[in-house]
Amino acid sequence: MAKLVFDIETSALPLDRFDEAQQEYLFRESEKIAEEAARTTRREEIQRQCSLWPFTAQVVCIAMLNADTARGQVLFTATDYAQGQAEAGPVEFVSCLDEAELLTAFWDVAKHYETIVTFNGRGFDVPFIYLRSALLAVPITRKDWLGYRFQTEPHCDLAEQLTFYGVSGRDGAARRFNLDFYCKAFGIESPKSHGITGMDVGSLLAAGRFRDIAEYCLRDVKATVLLYQIWKERLAGIK
């Protein structure tokens, strides 16, 4: 059964995309803080968090690999977009004109796979791309990725599997760690080993470093593939 492993990168939309009422709603909590420095700090925190919400952010990259063949695509938006621009090879880098084109290309690939593998995809990647696709009127070809939580088909979320569906809560033996921590624990090269993290995506986008974002996203997916293989060999089937 063909398995698609994927990861997304997102970036906050410019604040001027939101009207006065929307901005007031977003920053309402910070405005209640009396002390100016603390108020500014909280406002900056909220602005960073905007990259995590599909109504205040956009998808700028999706990396995909076939779990068995290691072949795939990295779709990314780029202002220096050239129609049809792509690089051949086991992993094809494809620049897209905008987010709608990127999501359309993603769903065209996704419809050919029976199962997906993610890290925290149930909590972030999947609802994010569902909502962004709906906002942009991009047809969604797979609407079953948020189905019954306690199964690995059609969606195997490794963050769920490595915590046994949150059996220990926040502080128990099977508490959740981030992908970087799991990779280091299992001897997998961390996606962050090249000095780029998800927190850098916004600044990289502003600097026009679109390929750096794409390569970072691909490293996330390659690490997820290796982590999936370890889970499948050593832990799959535990109930």
Give the SSE order as H and E letters: EHHHEEEHEHEHHHH
Number of helices: 9
Question: Which overall shape is indicated by the principal axes computed on the Cα atoms?
Answer: globular
Helix content: 25-40%
Record field, number of beta strands: 6
In round numbers, the mean pLDDT is: 94
Largest sheet: 6 strands, mixed
Structural class: alpha/beta
Radius of gyration: 19 Å
Low-confidence sequence ranges: none
Largest sheet: spatial strand order: 4-3-2-1-5-6
> In whole angstroms, how far apart are the ends?
22 Å
State which percent range the strand residues make up: 15-25%
Summary, kept brief:
Helix content is 39%, strand content 16%. The protein is of the alpha/beta class.
What does this structure look like?
The chain is α/β, with parallel strands linked by helices and 239 residues long. 39% of the residues lie in helices and 16% in strands. The chain has a 6-stranded mixed beta sheet with strand order 4-3-2-1-5-6, sandwiched between helices. Helix 5 links the parallel strand 5 and strand 6. The longest helix has 25 residues, at 210-234. It is globular, with a radius of gyration of 19 Å.
